[in-house]
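Retro notes (design track)

What went well: tokenization of the new backbones is finally stable.
What didn't: we kept losing track of which sequence belonged to which structure.
Fix going forward: every design gets posted as structure first, then sequence, in one message. First example under the new rule, 179 residues:
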């Protein structure tokens, strides 16, 4: 168990890199078999999902594309409940199989907004793929088809996820230590 300090908070390892990779590969394997013969567009939600999206995509052995969107809903360690679109969709999604790639579904508000926005592009199908879900916090009904891991309701950083923009480069996932 190793500890890191970011600004005013201490974190300790909760999901080691090897475990993350095993789970990401398992999700990728399911996508490989479900999307045989199709060419899905991975739609990575910036910033948090960029590390997951890169690893996920490299475990895919089907033809696939990637595109990016950027929404903002979080400041510090608690959700503001507000979602803003900062970078919009720049790929034609009409008639495409779209897989939204998220770092974490917490309350589900961001994802619900995303689904509403993306349906307007008339994709052939729309699927959710997330690295993490906090089932206890989910307040919105969502059909999360691809989820690598479920975690308790604690604030985490690493593997793309930040605490005030720091910690995204950590290879393991760390949980905040309450003092
Ligand atoms: P939601 O709208 O589902 O409540 O929030 C989703 C967003 O909040 C995620 O995409 C992520 O950016 C952020 N978030 C939720 N929980 C955590 C967490 O434990 N750690 C970090 N770093 N971000 C989180
Ligand atoms: Mg996110
Ligand atoms: Mg964040």
């Amino acid at each position: 168990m190793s500890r890191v300090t970011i600004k005013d908070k201490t974190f300790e390892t909760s999901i080691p890199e090897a475990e993350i990779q095993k789970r990401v590969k398992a999700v990728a394997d399911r996508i490989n078999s479900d999307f045989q013969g199709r060419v899905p567009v991975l739609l990575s939600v910036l910033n948090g999902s960029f590390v997951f999206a890169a690893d996920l995509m490299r475990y895919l052995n089907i033809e696939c594309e990637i595109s990016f969107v950027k929404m903002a809903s979080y400041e510090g360690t608690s959700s503001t409940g507000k979602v803003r679109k900062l970078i919009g969709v720049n790929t034609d999604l009409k008639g495409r199989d779209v897989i939204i790639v998220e770092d974490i579904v917490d309350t589900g508000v961001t994802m619900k907004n995303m689904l509403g926005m993306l349906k307007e592009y008339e994709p052939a199908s729309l699927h959710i793929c997330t690295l993490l879900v906090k089932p206890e916090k989910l307040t919105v009904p969502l059909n999360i088809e691809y989820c690598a891991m479920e975690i308790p309701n604690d604030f985490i950083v690493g593997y793309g996820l930040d605490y005030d923009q720091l910690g995204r480069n950590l290879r393991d996932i760390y949980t905040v230590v309450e003092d």
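Added context from the reviewer: The mean pLDDT is 93.
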